[in-house]
Amino acid sequence: MSTREGKAPYEDVLMFLAICVIGGAYCYYSNREIPPFMNSLDQQQASPSVATKSKPLKASDHFSDHKHHLLLAATGSVATIKIPLILHALSHHTNLSVRLILSNSARQFLQAQSAEQPSLEEISKIKNLDGIYFDEDEWAKPWVRGDSILHIELRRWVDLLVVAPLSANGLAKVSQGFSDNLVTSVIRAWDFSGLIDGARPGVKLPYDSGKSAKDLEGLPEEFRAGGRKGIIVAPAMNTAMWKHPVTEKQLAVLEDEWGVANGGWFKVLRPMEKMLACGDTGSGAMRDWKEIVRVIEQRLELGGDADDDVKKG
Ligand SMILES: *[C@@H]1O[C@H](CO)[C@@H](O)[C@H](O)[C@H]1NC(C)=O
Q1: Identified catalytic residue from 278, 298, 301, 303
Q2: 51-312 in CATH: which number?
């Protein structure tokens, strides 16, 4: 305490209070950015209702709901702000159940900071959306034998996974088999063979497993229709990132080795050319969200009114 000699004991307290007042005033008057501690408060306030809607998931509870199961995911990119538009556009389908995964960075784009970026609370009210999941939901409580594992339950539950946007980092991870968060764990655990999960009663799986009629004959009933689950990704990134030679290598894995066009389970909706959020013009922007909606509707055979809806906007 020798360095503090000569100070009155309450000086530190006064200094602390002064910092609080100045800091608080700064945050209050600078309208530009939500300080990080307020962000976490927002999340705490938003989480109870989001959580009760999301947890716990047991895929077997939804086995016979006669609905198509769409898992929508966003990994950190500005294009995450299209997620509410995609959800709204899919909300009128009567036989669709949607669950949403937001990566930690994607979540930052949906914090009620503008009209096109509603809060998660608001988003959770959109019809057909039956759950929102974050990375930490995987570890919501210390695991004991008998507990379900979220990324496996989501994999069992889903018919079609759509990652829109898939960030540059997300593309790199997926193409190399990394599984360090919830969405990449679902992708890593995928039933690419079409021989693990099978089809649910009355609901066709979106892709073909490529097995011959003879092969299918000998299989258990849920596999006999020859369906397979699928993953559609819509990459979005800065032009320079998109043009980088490593992108083509990673896309080749998804499109050539694992692509549906070659009998696989992956489909890439390549970016389009436009002015990007960072100010650069060029390719790298996520495919138009309306087109993503149309692809989902066609893939899940959600009904023929899709095109009209897109035109009506
Ligand atoms: C869901 O509804 C659409 C449109 O009515 C229909 O084409 C599709 O077969 C339905 N799917 C299931 C699983 O009932």
Answers
A1: 278
A2: 3.40.50.1950
